[in-house]
Amino acid sequence: MTPPAHPARLTAVLDAPLSRWLWLVKWLLAFPHYVVLSFLWAAFLGTSVVAFFAILLTGRYPRPLFGFGTGVLRWSWRVGYYAYGALGTDRYPPFTLADVPDYPAHWDLAYPGELSRGLVLVKWWLLAIPHYLIVGFLLGNVQATWFAGGLIGLLTLCAGIALAATGRYPRDLFDLVVGLDRWVLRVAAYAALLTDVYPPFRLDQGGGEPEAAP
């Protein structure tokens, strides 16, 4: 049975060919993005506090703040896809919060309209605890740009070694890494109050989102 669609949609296309050796210096090439993202995430934390009180009072996430938050997550995913969250492309990430149609990595989240005023009090700390434990294992420590260890970092290192040795990114490994990144982004959207849809304890692998059940 096809699982229900999640409102957060992460997609990725594996670029080919990929450089055998570029991945060794992507930590340096992506450094400007890490600097910008550190400021964006600080701002995102501030806007999330504002959104918390807005949801508590009105049941809605202010649209401008929602657009900013989804943009920060989108930017983070592109950088992670280029660098050590996936190594899925050698195309340098653009410096923008907006979606870039021709870039091989995309992330979007449907605007929820009404949000629960009660859930906003507990979902970001209490309800999300099981997922925080899993994300901590996947990332080694929770960092927005996926420049971390953990299972994702280890699998990405394996992908880099495979590239160096064969010039190819094993497809099964790619599908697994992207599935784990998808899990992380779903949890991030929930914890940031952007959606009330609880992240499923399900690994949806591959570059495409599973389609909704009929």
- Broad structural category: mainly alpha
> How many strands appear in the DSSP assignment?
2
Q: Spatial order of the strands in the main sheet?
A: 1-2
> What percentage of amino acids are in beta strands?
under 5%
- Total number of helices: 7
Q: What is the mean predicted local confidence, pLDDT?
A: 93
What's the number of domains?
1
Regions with little confidence, pLDDT below 50 for 5+ residues:
none
Helical amount: 40-55%
* Biggest sheet overview: 2 strands, antiparallel
Q: What oligomeric arrangement do these chains adopt? A: single chain
Radius of gyration, in Å, reads 17 Å
Distance between the termini: 10 Å
Coarse shape: globular
Order of helices and strands: EHHHEHHHH
Short description:
This protein is 50% helix and 5% strand. The chain is globular.
